[in-house]
C-alpha cells in the first residue's frame, strides 16, 4: 500500500511550549486512521500543519509522496478537510457555500455536481436556505459536502462528531465507512470520543502532550493481552501490597484503584491467588476498550512507558 | 485570480454591512442637498460677505450642481475612510471570526493570492463607493441644482481666495478628482487589510484604522516647521485631500484664470506617487505578515 501521509519528526512550538513534539507517523492508502488524544494533546495543531494552516517549527510532512512545503497547491487539491466545527458563510446558502469552496478547490463546478453532493449529505431540499438557519448537524453535513465536493483522495476530519446528536454521530460513522470501503478514500480522523474511533478506524495513534504514545493497528492495540482488570476488595491497599510482593507485581498499575494490565486469560489465576491469600473480593471488572486503554495511557505515565517499550 | 476575485466580490455583495456605506453616503448627500435647496443662500452670503463689494456674482446661480458636489466632497472625505474600513478591515479578521479562514486556507490557493484578491476586492468596493458618491453628489446635484460656473473658496497661506471655473472646464476636473480620491482611499483599504491580518474580529482593525487616520490627520494639520519637514511628507493623510488640486485653476500674470490649467500639476503628481507607494508598501507588508501567520482561529 502506498503511503499517503508521512510525518517525520514534526514539532510545533508556541512561545516556550511544544504543542507537538517530535511526532512521526504514517498513514497508508485506504486507512481510516484514528488520531487520538485528550484536549490539548496536539491533535488539532498536527492537523493544521497537515493542511498548511500552521507552519511547523521542525520536521517534514510528505503527502502523496511529495513534500508539503514545496508542493502545497498540488497536494491540497487532493485533500478535503473538516476542521473542528465546519464554520461556513452564514449569510450564504448551502448551495453558494458549496459552490464557492468547490471553485476554490480548482474543479469545474456544475449545478448537477453541487446538487448531487448536497443530496449525498441530505441537504438537497435546503440548498437555497442560508446556513444561519441550519442546525449544528446540518452544518456538519454541509462541511462534509464541502470537503468531498472535489473528490479528494485524502479526507482529514478534525473532531467531526463535535456537537452532533447520537443519530448524527451514527450517520457520520456510516459516511466515513462508506468513503473508505466503497470509494477507497483515505481518512484521517481525530477525536476524543474514543468509542467512535474504535468502531471505524483500522489504525490509530495516541498522542499526549504533543508526543506519540503509541501507534499501531486497532486490533492489535485491543489485544486481550492488554486487558485492564480492576478489582475491588474489602481492603484495596493491603491487596495491592500483597500483589506487589508477588509474581503479579509487573502488572500492577500505578493508580489509586487496584488495577492490573494483563492477559485476560490469566484473570482466573489472579482471582484464585487472591482468594488463596485470604483477600475478600467484592468485584472484578475487565475491559479492553480503546477508551479505557486511552485513559490508562494518558493518565498514567508509568504505564505508558511500560507499554511503549 | 479572476475566479477568486469573483468569489470575493460575490461574498461582499451578499453581506448586509456592505450596503451600510452606500446608505450612509446617500443619507449625508441628501441632507446636504435638502439644506442647500432650502437655505443655500445663507451659506453663500456668509462665504461672500468679505468680498461683496469687490466681487460680483449671481449668488443664486452660484449654488449649482458642481458647487454642491465640491462642498459635499469636502465634508465626506473625513467620513469615507471609516466606511472603507468597514469592509476592508473585515477582509481577513471577518473570516477568522466566522471560522471560515481555516477552510479557506486549506484550499489550493496561495496566501499571496488570498491577500491580493482581498485587496483587489476592497479596491473594487472603494471604486464602487466613489461611483455612488459621484452619482449622488455630482449627477443628482446637477439634476436638482442645475449647471453653472463654479466658485471655489480657498485659503492659501494667510489670504483667502475665490476661484471661478467656467462650466465647460469643470467636468474633467471631477473625473480626475474622483480618480485621485480612489487612489487615496485605496491606501485606507490597504491599511485596513494589513491590520485585519492581526485580529480575530473586525472591530479592532476598524477602530485601529480610524484611530490611525485621525492621529495622522491631526499631525498633518499641525503647522510646526520640524513636523512640516520631517513628518508630514511621509504621512498618507497629508495627501488625502490632494484631489482639491484639480480645482485650483492656473492663473496668468494678471491673475486671470486659464481654462484647462492646473495651478500645480507636479504637486498633484507627486502626491499620487506617494499614495501609490503607500499602497505598495502596505500590500507587501500584508502579504509578508499573512504568509507568516499561523491560522489558529
Notes on the protein architecture:
The complex is a heterodimer of chains A (309) and B (297). Helix content of chain A is 36%, strand content 28%. With 309 residues, chain A is α/β, with parallel strands linked by helices. A six-stranded mixed sheet of chain A has the order 6-7-8-3-9-10, sandwiched between helices. In chain A, strands 2-1-4-5 form a four-stranded antiparallel sheet, with helices on one face. A three-stranded antiparallel sheet of chain A has the order 12-11-13, covered by helices on one side. In chain A, strand 4 (58-63) and strand 5 form a beta hairpin. The longest helix of chain A is centred in the middle third of the chain and has 16 residues, at 166-181. Chain A starts with a strand and ends with a helix. Residues 301-309 of chain A have low confidence and may be disordered. By secondary structure, chain B is mainly alpha-helical. The mean pLDDT of chain B is 86. In chain B, a hairpin with a 2-residue loop joins strand 1 and strand 2 (159-165). The longest helix of chain B is centred in the middle third of the chain and has 35 residues, at 111-145. The chains are: A alpha/beta (309), B mainly alpha (297).
